[in-house]
Amino acid sequence: MSTEWLPRAVYAFGYRFGTVLAAQNVFARLAMTHLLLGAHDLPHTYRTFENEGDAVAWLAVAREVEASEPTLSFVAST
Predict the structure, then answer these.
(1) Coil, helix or strand for 71?
(2) For position 69, what pLDDT does the model report?
């Protein structure tokens, strides 16, 4: 996932923000930590939450902040 799917989602489709619900099982936590560490060089942001409501609220705010940021466009002239 961190070597194929996630880079493609980020670069080809603009995937910028993700949330992870913290697992109670130690092995599930270890697997998710491994995934997040393997993807730390990508231009996206992940946050971990204990409950789904907080995760959804953070995603909504992150999308609003991104939408309000100015974008730069360059026009090449000849």
Answers:
(1) coil
(2) 66
